[in-house]
């Protein structure tokens, strides 16, 4: 094969390699997310009209898709949904999609949230927990609040943003998920002062004793 023929083949070879790269990325993503984050759904044994959604993982894909699929299957069952959480938090965008699905649930069902004994609800898990009408938690369950952190979409590494960008993102998160929530306004103002650059941990009992209105009932 002479150089001219090689040059003519180069665009074709490049397209083939590009197509193979896209296919490999797609298959790799399928493998990564295929079984990650299983959502368990069942009727409450003590109340058949209550459907329990149990999530034990990060607030990451495919959480919203799991909730969407499960709600499609269960939306004509019962009259109440309990969302049982144990999560270290995760992506704001994924959490927002989950909240949108919960808002659809509320059109036809009572939706409550729960965190059981020695379980945790950190970071983006808290705005999801706050969607419950009744928000139950064991006294020794743990909640964590911190300012949102930006991560590079491709590498997953933390991005060092300029201070004004961090402050703007933090304020927007606070306004969307905490100002427009059942959180007690006095406690919320205290949180706004104290969470700058810190991870704040509270047990459910501490949140109740401080009248935060995050937890409405101790289990």
Automatic annotation (TrEMBL):
<dbReference type="Pfam" id="PF00574">
    <property type="entry name" value="CLP_protease"/>
</dbReference>
<protein>
    <submittedName>
        <fullName>ATP-dependent Clp protease proteolytic subunit</fullName>
    </submittedName>
</protein>
<dbReference type="InterPro" id="IPR029045">
    <property type="entry name" value="ClpP/crotonase-like_dom_sf"/>
</dbReference>
<dbReference type="InterPro" id="IPR023562">
    <property type="entry name" value="ClpP/TepA"/>
</dbReference>
<dbReference type="GO" id="GO:0006508">
    <property type="term" value="P:proteolysis"/>
</dbReference>
<keyword id="KW-0378">Hydrolase</keyword>
<keyword id="KW-0645">Protease</keyword>
<dbReference type="GO" id="GO:0008233">
    <property type="term" value="F:peptidase activity"/>
</dbReference>
């Amino acid at each position: 094969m002479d150089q001219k023929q090689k040059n003519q083949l180069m665009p074709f070879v490049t397209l083939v390699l590009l197509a193979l790269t896209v296919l490999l990325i797609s298959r790799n993503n399928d493998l990564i997310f295929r079984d990650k984050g299983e959502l368990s759904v069942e009727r409450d044994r003590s109340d058949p009209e209550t459907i329990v959604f149990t999530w034990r993982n990060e607030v990451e894909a495919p959480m919203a898709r799991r909730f969407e699929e499960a709600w499609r299957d269960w939306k004509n069952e019962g009259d109440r949904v309990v969302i049982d959480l144990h999560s270290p938090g995760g992506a704001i965008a994924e959490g927002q999609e989950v909240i949108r699905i919960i808002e659809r649930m509320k059109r036809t069902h009572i939706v409550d949230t729960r965190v059981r004994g020695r379980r945790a609800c950190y970071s983006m898990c808290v705005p999801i927990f706050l969607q419950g009408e009744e928000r139950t938690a064991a006294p020794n369950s743990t909640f964590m609040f911190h300012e949102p952190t930006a991560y590079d979409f491709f590498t997953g590494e933390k991005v060092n943003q300029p201070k004004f960008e961090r402050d703007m993102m933090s304020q927007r998160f606070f306004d969307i998920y905490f100002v427009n929530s059942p959180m007690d306004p006095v406690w919320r103002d205290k949180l706004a002062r104290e969470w700058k650059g810190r991870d704040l941990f509270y047990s459910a009992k501490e949140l109740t004793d401080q009248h935060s209105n995050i937890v409405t009932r101790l289990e």
